[in-house]
């Protein structure tokens, strides 16, 4: 893969939380709709929750993964660039309590970066989670979708995002493989995380530490880029060449 091709990829990851810190804070309409959602999930996937789980308990644990009941608190992005014939990587985050502002800032970056049809986005499970979630939350917040995200109605083969999960499946759609597992099997060194995805909502609502979430999210962006390189038979980025902004 040529240098200019690598420099046309924006790597990204998002972190999401429930819209409110507690089920009781939802509007009556949304509370009723979440109960409907919970009952539907419980009926289709009875193994997901125990019989004793209430809609309120499920909201705290699961609502963040659904764009109708969650919100984005962090979008981290990363870029490969070359300096002195060595590959470098720079990552930064859009994060905070104001979802509309961070989505607006991210949209402006997309517009500046994606100047040709060859520019694209890369993430782990990006096609099934990150991109749809971002698009839906932009529309809910009244933000016009930038060109690269205006994919509603397009056929799967017309969407050129790079999904490392999809690359790893090699046509096998039976299983989900976590990013952390891929870094382990490929022997990709990663900094030890002090939190995992299941703790993001607690860190956000109880500790009110969005910067801690951003650090965790940026690590996943770096891991995604490294996995992408390995999947393409390329050398990893040296740790000393990775910049966190």
Which keywords apply here?
single chain, 245 residues, alpha/beta, Nucleotidyltransferase, domain 5, six-stranded mixed sheet, 9 helices, 6 strands, 18% strand, globular
Can you characterise this structure?
By secondary structure, the chain is α/β, with parallel strands linked by helices. It has 2 domains: 190 residues, Ribonuclease H-like superfamily/Ribonuclease H (Nucleotidyltransferase, domain 5, 2-Layer Sandwich); 49 residues, no CATH class. Helix content is 42%, strand content 18%. The chain has a 6-stranded mixed β-sheet. Helix 2 packs across helix 3 and helix 7 crosses helix 9.
Provide a brief overview of the structure.
The protein is 42% helix and 18% strand. The protein has helices spanning 3-6, 28-44, 55-62, 99-113, 126-140, 164-169, 179-185, 200-207, 210-231, and strands spanning 9-18, 70-83, 86-95, 120-123, 162-163, 242-244. β4, α5 (126-140) and β5 (162-163) form a beta-alpha-beta unit.
Poorly predicted runs are none
User: In total, how many beta strands?
Assistant: 6
Tally the helices.
9
Q: What is the 3D form?
A: globular
The largest beta-sheet arranges its strands as 5-4-1-2-3-6
Strand percentage lies at 15-25%
Q: Can you tell me the CATH class of the largest domain?
A: Alpha Beta
SS content category? alpha/beta
- Compute the gyration radius: what is it? 19 Å
Going by CATH, the homologous superfamily of the largest domain would be: Ribonuclease H-like superfamily/Ribonuclease H
End-to-end separation in angstroms reads 26 Å
Overall mean pLDDT: 92
CATH architecture of the largest domain: 2-Layer Sandwich
Tally of domains: 2
Could you tell me the CATH topology label of the largest domain: Nucleotidyltransferase, domain 5
Query: What is the N-to-C order of secondary-structure elements (H for helix, E for strand)?
Result: HEHHEEHEHEHHHHE
The percentage helix is: 40-55%
